[in-house]
Amino acid sequence: MTVFCNKTSEQKFVPFELKEIAMKHATIFSLVLVWDHLTWLGDYTGMCQLYVLGSASYFSLKYMLNAVDRIELNKDGKSVTFHFKIGGQKSTVAIKDIVKGKNERELVSTFEEGYLYPVNVGEKTYYLHGRGAESVKNGEVFRAILNGRNINL
Questions:
Q1: Residue 142 · residue 68 · CB < 8 Å
Q2: What is the DSSP letter of 10?
Q3: For a 10 Å CB count at each end of the chain, is N or C smaller?
Q4: Residues 50-70: tens digit of each pLDDT
Q5: Are the C-beta atoms of 37 and 45 separated by less than 8 Å?
Q6: Radius of gyration, alpha carbons of the chain
Q7: How many angstroms separate the CA atoms of 64 and 31, rounded?
Q8: pTM over 0.90
Q9: In this structure, is the dihedral angle defined by the CA atoms of residues 8, 145, 59 and 91, taken in order, positive or negative?
Q10: How far apart are the first and last CA of the chain?
Q11: CA–CA dist 84, 37 (Å, integer)
Q12: Contact of 33 with 41, CB cutoff 8 Å
């Protein structure tokens, strides 16, 4: 049973977290140019700009490589399968190991935008990449999974 799926009829925009990374790093990149104009930095200008671009790429990839596109409840009711957005990989996770990274109210408040909702499984953090309220296919089962409760089928 599919509980969460990113495919929706309405196109949504980029998640806020990625917009935030882009804006912060674009500002820092611009400040490096201004700083170089005010006090000549020489070769350090290029190194600083490269560092800023590398940092933006690292943080964006960290989010998107751990972005879960779809969650399917397995037949045993005790585990779910995460389908990742990039690479088409799958990972089976026990429901009891899932810990939500934010309050559920945070998820509800972002239902009109694209979002990355963090869930922790052991030491690893995954991000549910949704595109609004349509992404949650079965709300009660989805809430039970986020709260770490097994599902009786």
A1: no
A2: S
A3: C
A4: 999 999 999 999 999 999 988
A5: no
A6: 19
A7: 27
A8: no
A9: negative
A10: 10
A11: 44
A12: no
